[in-house]
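Dear colleague,

Following up on yesterday's call, I've attached the two folding results inline so they're easy to grep. Please treat them as preliminary; we haven't cross-checked anything against experimental data yet. The first protein's sequence and structure tokens come first.
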Amino acid sequence: MRNSKGFSLIELLIVVAIILIIAAIAIPNLLRARIAANEASAAQSLRLINTAEFAYNAAYPNLGYSTDLASLGGAPPCLPSSAHACLLDNVLASAIPGSGGKSGYVFATTGITAGALTSSFITGTSPLTFGVTGTRDFCSTEDGVIRFDPGKTGATPVTKVSDCQAFTMMQ
């Protein structure tokens, strides 16, 4: 009679194969869940930027809306001024193209000036790496409606009101 201890090579290979099959099924779902979370974060960040723009307009009525994202934020300890209003956290206020972004997205805010007053704004966001961090672009104007469009590789945040209004409204 043979007294064996441990597992045979075949048994170990079967266990490894089962683990690999489970991983192959789970990883794509994990990536899709991460993209969905990044997109939800991007839409919520646009809502925060809209709120900050409205607060900026109320705080500085002689200027109107902010002309860029940086003027809505400010590094701590932040002292409010028209150049750094301290309305957004600095991570979001500095998530501009060329930076590391926030939750896989980069943001841009453009103020639309009529005379000396910035009477309107547009905020856009695009995935930092299309297909990995997100698959949709988002935008909003002073109407506060979040709109989205299927993204594409190399996309940059929308900076024109007409381009944003062509996007589909979120439900």
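Below is the second protein, in the same order (sequence, then structure):
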Amino acid sequence: MYLTNLPKIHKFRQIMKYSLSILIFFLGTVLLFSQDTAAQKELLKRTYEKYGLLKTNPEQAFAEAKKIEKEARKINAKEAELRATAMIYVYYRNKNDFENMLTVSNSLFQKAEKYKIPVYQVIAKRMLFECYFFSDLPERAFGELEQGEELMKKLDAQDSIVIRAKADVYINYANYYTLKNNPEKVETYLKLAGREFEKYPDKKYRKGLLYFHYSNIARFYNEMNIPDSAKYYVLLSQLKGEDYTRVTAELNNLQVLGEVAMKERDYEKALVYFKRAEKLDGDKTHLNIEILYDKIIESYTELHFNDSARLYRAKKDSLKLSISENQNKSLHKLLNEANKNNYKIYIYLFGSLLAGMSVALFFIIRKNRILSRQEKISQEYLLKSSGNQNSEAYSKLIEMFKNNDLAFMTYFEEVFPDFTAKVSKLSPGVIQSEMEFYALLKLKISTNDIALYRYIEPKTVRNKKYLIKKKFNIPKEADIYQWFSEL
């Protein structure tokens, strides 16, 4: 999985939906631990002052954090040292450097454990969750999250940083259950996070936390295909963020608005939102960026701006190559740890990964064989039924399809007045783009022609047909064109 960046990354696309506040929890929080000396207080203050550099001058921020770490050890300024280490983690996170993220988060946990500061142990576990989550090891990530939750039980629930830490643990549970396609638990954990934010004592900072929270809720409703609620929570988020704008929430809000515009088939408006999101500088994970590129590619394709779509496909491929390399380094890091700590366990893990890749490869080959067989059956059926497609209405529909005529579906529904109702009964909530594809199957338009006139790859058409057969429980031996023809 690390070497090829295989199918799980597509599930991770949903992750971006709630990961926007994943690391913010310890960076903007007002920490109230007392310091023994003026020098310790001053050093801690510097960590807050230098944090802003992560956005404007990350290299300088990294150098300052390393310097503070060193000075803090000399004067025993434990909290300043831990916070500086957390800054270093964010620096590597912004670079998608999974190997160093893993090293720094482990270091933070060990130091927090040594200094007996449980809240930073929780923070470190949150970081480790993210490291493994981004490295395509969700179950390992979940284990770190559960350990962090256990450590939270030792903390004073009234403390500001603890309130924030609890909220972010809940957000990460939402991330995990997003991956598991469990919307009920996603909603539950997002609501729990919101309740924690409401407890925050500082009124101004509470407003900023709700800015992130409402943005997460907007993403959730967008994924549940409730666009009015999604737009409502984006508006709430933007109102809360008037004095507290942060890239992660603003990026999410713009993406939600863009995706809502896409559902309304207003692709030009969608691109305006997506391009604004692309220009934002700051905390953007590779998952955020990949989703953004996907949406831009889809919008350009729908508008037939094929050169622009190809440009963003190239950008996406370059990003995925970079991420794959970093995930590979992360895997090597795990294997090196295995040699030092528990060789057999990690060799088993590595073997499991290889086995998983083998299983995935098996199913890919199997699926390709199924697609090839189904395509052959379809070609034979289309060849036999070609004589029944000479009516004037059929010819007009084909011409409208080839010209990408916006009135295509209107005329199709005149020719086949019961089709939409029948499909909607079998699949409630079907969207317009899906119905258009079903109409093409009803008209017996071949895979190659759909690909040619809709500017997509034949493989994409075959995959869509494969998923449709599963969705409608069409028997394996039945041809999809014949099934829709008889509908």
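For the second protein, one point worth flagging: Residues 1-35 have pLDDT under 50 and may be disordered.

Best wishes,
A.L.
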